[in-house]
Design goal:
The complex is a heterodimer of chains A (about 425) and B (about 300). By secondary structure, chain A is mainly α. Chain A has two domains: about 55-170, 3-Layer(aba) Sandwich (D-Maltodextrin-Binding Protein, domain 2); about 190-430, no CATH class. Chain A has helices spanning about 5-20, 20-55, 65-80, 95-105, 135-155, 160-170, 185-230, 235-240, 245-275, 275-285, 295-320, 330, 335-350, 355-360, 370-375, 385-410, 420-430, and strands at about 55-60, 85-90, 110-115, 125-130. Chain A has a four-stranded mixed sheet, with helices on both faces. Chain A is elongated, with a radius of gyration of 33 Å. The two termini of chain A are about 15 Å apart. Chain B has two domains: about 1-220; about 225-285. In chain B, about 35% of the residues lie in helices and about 30% in strands. Chain B is built from ten helices and 13 strands. In chain B, the strands form three sheets. A six-stranded mixed sheet of chain B has the order 5-6-7-3-8-9, sandwiched between helices. Chain B has a four-stranded antiparallel sheet with strand order 11-12-10-13, with helices on one face. The two termini of chain B are about 35 Å apart. The model of chain B has no long low-confidence stretch (mean pLDDT about 85). Classes of the chains: A mainly alpha (about 425), B alpha/beta (about 300). The interface between A and B is medium-sized, with 27 and 32 residues. Chain A: This is ABC transporter permease. Chain A: InterPro entries: ABC-2_transporter_component (IPR051449), ABC2_TM (IPR013525). Chain A: One of its GO terms (cellular component) is plasma membrane. Chain A: Keywords: Cell membrane, Membrane, Transmembrane, Transmembrane helix.
Amino acid sequence: MNKNKLGTVIGFTFRNKVKTKAFLITTLVLAIIISIAINIPYLIQLFTGEDLKSEGTKIGLVYGQQVELAGQLDSYWKEQNNDEFTFMKYDTSDAAVLKKDIEDGKIDGYLEFSEEQATLFPSVVYSSNEDDGLNPIAQAELSAALQAVKMQVIVKDSLTAEQIAELKTPVQFDAQNINANPNASTVVEEKDEAAEMMEFGVVYLLIILFFFTSMTTGNMIAAEVTTEKSSRIMEILITSVSPLTQMFGKVIGMFLVGLTQIVTFILVIIGNLLMPQNKELLADFNIDLSQVSIDVIVYGFLFYVLGYFLYAVLFAAVGSIVSRTEDLGQAVMPITMLSLAAFYIGSFSMGAPDSMLMKVSSFIPFLSPTTMIVRIGIGEIAMWEIWVSILIMLVSILFFGWLSAKIYRTGVLMYGKRPTIKELRKAMKAYKI
Amino acid sequence: MESLKLEKVTKQFGDKTAVNELSLQVEKGEIYGLLGANGAGKTTTMRMVLGLIYPDGGSIRYNGKPHNDELRQIMGYLPEERGLYPKIKVSDQINYLAQLRGMPRKDADKSLRYWLERFEVPEYYDKRIEELSKGNQQKIGFIAAVVHKPQILILDEAFSGLDPVNVELLKSTVKELRDQGTSILFSTHRMEHVEELCQNITIMHRSNPIVQGSLKEIKGRYPREQVALGTTSEVTGLENIPGVSKVTIQEQGGYLIAISDTSAAQQILQTAMLQSVVEKFELKEPTLNQIFIKEVGESHE
């Protein structure tokens, strides 16, 4: 293989692909989609959250017959220092007046105690002109407050203030992992959880990136080879440069195209996350980019490269046996299926990364790029397992690279209908390849 | 020394023999004609010469050496179904192809500009192939084959699909390359091109070389069987001369007389001179087309 010529093929492939409109548009559209997706939480906050906060809910509190209860509720609420909603006192229980005030916007709704005395504590009704009544948070706060008032009313003075406070605190319920370091403080545990979340996200991102870029670049390779064949430039190419140089030049060139795309996406993601509004949001969710484990990234990249080359040589081989671009979709179907299997096994098993299915498939060359990343990122894995899997990948790349080069060498000279395996083998023999 | 020498080259595809014991040699600065019907084995022969496929028997030698990687730099190829990248600029792809053939980019660009100038289409430098007409695409295809100044040039149906003006342009270019010392293996269906360009030819029929040698010598092997006669007035009784098998009156005046014996020609001339004034008399040598049809049994124009 001539190094100079390999460089020429790589350069030509890369330049011409990156310059195409299709590539530029896909990359741009995806970058925009990623930006929007990252900013969605902020946008939601912008449109809803701020609105709710700016004007707190005002609730009319009808004293009516239950002056004592209403007074207790009001004073209890004031003690809480919560601005989720505020009470406005109404002595009258005249529905018409209250309704008018709701319509005028003075209050959002009103709270009324029923007059029955059948139970110790009357039932409470909230009336407003909105279908969904109070927002869930306010509703929860309100019923907690009512619960507290109810307790006060029932126990009266039979319990001390401390006892009442003790009653109100919910039971402390802690889950404990017996394997965890007993000395670890809760703060560290919380951080671990955040890191785990982060790792989960990174693994998922890596799987998607692997699947997406290998499929698009792989299909581009196949399409390119078929185009060269159908436009008959192949005959000139193959007399100028050895098929092996040609095939690997294309594969490497397209790899650089994929890498360019990935780097672009990563820059877009990082750029978006560093914007001030998203920085706060990240902090809210306890996400710290520095917590991303370097191991996952490094192995992720390694398996991406290996996986890409494994799939790419197959795509090149398939491209070489197809004579017309229209037949290409059908011909690459088996490879697409294989990659879909890798994607789904990987992503569906993220909840159970140490299952037998995952253990087995992380050693199967076409599946390991995704499954291994899940195991490294989320599951538990021994170092030797990773390296055995890498070794298997390398051996498969050599084998399939060699096989694909043979198919490529034969396929590019065969025109007409797609040859069967038998015809291909016969042709290989005839061409002495 | 011959640039290209094939010795008893044989190629089989399964049970079918594609080329059977073909020997030929192309000298430096020679255009060698390879003729034959479709499926006669021309393309297979060319592919073997190019090293795309290997012969089952016999040997192919280039400047005395067997096939090797250096050949990629000194060979040029214009395939029958010529192709270029439809969506890529002429300059980009020609320079790419030249670089693959081992030419530095700068030299390649210079050579491309020279050829575009030579074909009077310098404005195509920045055009994409799909923007060009079919004939012009062919010119670019031809440039792709010669841009790196090959020593051995393989042209498969170089002139098909071109208009007469461009055929002349390409023909003169091919002759020029020959005069510069390029060895050219040339296949075509157009016999008049072969008669004009080639010194030596091979006619292949069903995988076998059936007629081989220098054009002159081959023609000498076939008897002269036609007389062209032009007179000022009508001549009668020509068909009664012994040895004359058929008399055809030509559209533009004059006669075309088929003879089975060369001695009949003298009698035809005498008869004509007695009756009228002879303006033209020619004992025609067989055209390559006639030889081809005679040997292969069908026309391939």
